[in-house]
Automatic annotation (TrEMBL):
GO terms for biological process: negative regulation of DNA-templated transcription. One of its GO terms (molecular function) is DNA binding. This is Penicillinase repressor. It comes from the Bacteria. Pfam families: Penicillinase_R (PF03965). Keywords: DNA-binding, Transcription, Transcription regulation. Belongs to the BlaI transcriptional regulatory family. SUPFAM superfamilies: Winged helix' DNA-binding domain. InterPro entries: BlaI_family, WH-like_DNA-bd_sf, WH_DNA-bd_sf. It comes from Lujinxingia litoralis.
Length: 133
């Protein structure tokens, strides 16, 4: 069993993650639309999906607009931006002055993705170094 560190502003439950994935893939949706794509398969109510949407809005990850008698929710961050925020939160919270442990952990994660992932990381680092020159 894995233990996940929870950061109150960025912590996402499984339902919240699936809702975000759906909005990234489908675009703006009403609670009913999200429920049809996520809630039906999970056997949960529209109210449960609406609660997840509201939590994501409160975390600043969604915005909503009133359309007719319902709200339509839109993701306001991309997957890449959320990844940056999560990694940034972990880095600022645990890295302190000593960053080598954080960097080693990041390389370990990349290594778990295989040689191709490590090569992509190497290319990204080389590109950033070239930009800085």
């Amino acid at each position: 069993m894995s233990h996940i560190l929870r950061f109150p502003d960025l912590a996402l439950g499984e339902l919240e993650q699936e809702v975000l994935e759906t909005l990234w893939h489908e675009g703006p949706l009403s609670p009913g639309g999200v429920h049809r794509r996520v809630g039906v398969a999970r056997g949960i109510s529209v109210n449960t999906v609406s609660s997840a949407l509201k939590r994501l809005q409160d975390k600043g990850l969604l915005e909503r607009e009133k359309v007719s008698h319902s709200y339509v929710y839109t993701a306001v961050v991309t997957r890449a931006e959320l990844q940056r925020q999560l990694i940034g939160a972990i880095a600022s919270r645990f890295a302190g002055e000593e960053r080598s442990g954080l960097l080693a952990a990041f390389v370990d994660v990349a290594e778990a993705g295989g040689e191709e992932t490590l090569r992509k990381l190497e290319a990204m680092i080389a590109a950033r170094l070239t930009e800085g020159e």
